[in-house]
Amino acid sequence: MSWIAGNNVILRAWERDDVPIRWEADQSADAEAQRYRDWHEPPRSLLRREQDWEAEQSEPDATAVSLVIVAEERPVGDINLFQIDTRNRHALIGLSLWRTEDRDHGYGSDAIRAMLGWAFGHLNLHRVELAVDATNERAIHVYEKLGFKREGMRRQHHFDGGVYHDELMMAVLDCEFAALDGGAHPD
């Protein structure tokens, strides 16, 4: 797999040159992006990010697919399928748009749609799920437009800014995604 095409984005493998671009974006993340990112992972140095990339290249995780989102011929974010379970045919999905100015252009929606098309059509997954901060209404709205259903709430699941936050669990099934207008995305 070298790339997956969306309508306005390309999903492609990470390259060494993407690592410093992502790191630079992390250094200037706005408060909203910082909050949603930090409860997933702590800040890392550029050296650590490069070491992580090198380790992934030498020993890839068979239960994960991590791709860079390219729009307008430049990297704008990353999208990941992880905890891929081929027996039960499900996985988790995660997305990050690196810069504030790249939001609200449809890149995230297009990237998720393309990744779901590939996950259901190529990997033969039956279910893709995600977890989102329950106050992230913009993301929840996008996920629902893409066919994700609300399945449950993990109360006070993560700690940030001195308080605990709830986490909403959502999932979409292959048949639900295929039923959406334009949901049957070609590989």
Layout of strands and helices, then pairs:
Layout: E1 3-5, E2 10-13, H1 18-27, H2 31-38, H3 46-58, E3 65-71, E4 74-85, E5 90-97, H4 107-121, E6 127-133, H5 137-145, E7 149-160, E8 163-173, H6 174-179
Parallel strand pairs: 5-6
Antiparallel strand pairs: 1-2, 2-3, 3-4, 4-5, 6-8, 7-8
Verbal overview:
The chain is of the alpha+beta class. An eight-stranded mixed beta sheet has the order 1-2-3-4-5-6-8-7, sandwiched between helices. It has helices at 18-27, 31-38, 46-58, 107-121, 137-145, 174-179; strands at 3-5, 10-13, 65-71, 74-85, 90-97, 127-133, 149-160, 163-173. It has one domain: 3-Layer(aba) Sandwich (Aminopeptidase), CATH 3.40.630.30. The longest helix is centred in the middle third of the chain and has 15 residues, at 107-121.
Summarize the structure.
With 187 residues, the chain is of the alpha+beta class. The chain has one domain: 3-Layer(aba) Sandwich (Aminopeptidase). The chain has six helices and eight strands; from the N terminus they run E-E-H-H-H-E-E-E-H-E-H-E-E-H.
